[in-house]
Amino acid sequence: MAVDADQVHRLVSEQFPQWASLPVQPVANGGWDNWTFHLGPRMSVRLPSAAEYALAVDKEHRWLPVLAPRLPLPIPTPLARGEPGAGYPYSWSVYPWIDGEPASADSIADPVRFARDLAGFLAALQRVDTTGGPRPGKHNWFRGGTLRTYEGKAQHALTALDGHVDVDLAREIWRSAQDARWDGVMSWFHGDVAQGNLLLVDGELAAVIDFGTCGVGDPACDLAVAWTLLTADGRQAFRERLSVDEATWARGRGWALWKTLVTCASTLGDAGGPAASGLRILGEIFSEYTAGAVAGPKA
Q: Looking at the whole model, is its pTM more than 0.85?
């Protein structure tokens, strides 16, 4: 659903009159799950764009203040929770504004250092006590659960891509990911470790944002970034810093694969950025898997 700045200003004025005089402006590329607006110079307003995304609001207010002091980089911590009003039907949040630019391959100053810093952040997140934490479910699109949840999407994409990419190799990688067993030890995970949620300052990782898909379960979903953003050297450093075993790495590759297959299938025939990016990532997944198969499993 669409939300505009005037509507957000009415919500803020009605529920938080102390901020009524602050200007409200939309954030460029403010995300898909939420509409994001600047509130004055140092705050932001996030409003879920659909009922499914609104399920994360309670979770974020409950758990982000718990996670934040235990992590080595800033994360968003809510300042206030808004309720439905002014024609908007869901709960919403006010956050501090966190400075930084979204990560991209061209803007990362040192790819290996970036990979290690990111791995250090995820290692700290995985060490947080999981007692009472949110299990995989609709609130996070079943991140942290089994890859078999996405079997239908993966197979539909593979059918669409037959004749355009090496679907036999893709199916082999997908099967190996599904067959890679998880030991069942719960860990916290972010759930959407993607370039738009990793903020840089002077080319270095400075903050991690958008915890709407976080939860406790299998942390392999957070490894997809190894193929979607990291360089080959960065991927190796990332894996070593996290001490990822073969089965977990295979499941992480599976997370990267199904999402990339869906992107490639939905942009088939396009020549734009998303199509080119999807094919590039698919190539990374194929080459890394093939090289590992030739070299044999890590000790």
A: yes
